[in-house]
Amino acid sequence: MTTEVVAPQPREEEIISANSREGERTMKYGNVTMGQVEAVINKLGGEDGMKRFLSGELVVKEIERKFNVWKTINLGTGKNADDFRKVLKDRGFNIGNWADDILGKPAFTAATEATEIDLVKVTVAELGFKEGARRDQIYERAKELGLELCPSEVGPQLRLQYQDQPNNEWLLIGMKPIADSDGDLGVFCVRRGDSELWLGSGWSHPGGVWDPGSRWVFRLPRK
To answer: What is the pTM of this model?
Structure first.
């Protein structure tokens, strides 16, 4: 009498694990390191950016975008908040209550020496967020594309130096938010509405989502 020996069959999870290991061994780009893979994902905007890239929502040319200087402005012409308040009012500009509030906070600073900086103007959609994005996402994407946050002085200086602003244009300043007297975070907003030129503020709650058409101003570093 003979006994038939039957080999044990692998469980489903073992098959999946084996296939995964085989896939790792036969990956086309075997010399690519995990660090390089992570660098590519970071360039795409993290995990969300990778998913958007794989789905076709984000295209490579958005990542490689080269920005042109939109406007060059001067800094260092005022020493403190009172200097800016006076010159803004003397020249007929309006200052919103909350903009005036954050203008007077210690977090607002002005350059001690005269200097020029280059600015770019970009929409949230142009940064790759077709459905809108939070401020932290907007800032991170701008950084990935080679842009920098503006000094807080850019708000009042841009207002003073952008007198031909089109009607109904709102520009949010990409800057480190300043807490107002109620503890809410805000950034400066340079706007023109009903032909009146304003230095206003934009509410910048960390969880708030800015729509795709929102326009932001960032600093373009000089090389």
So the answer is: 0.72
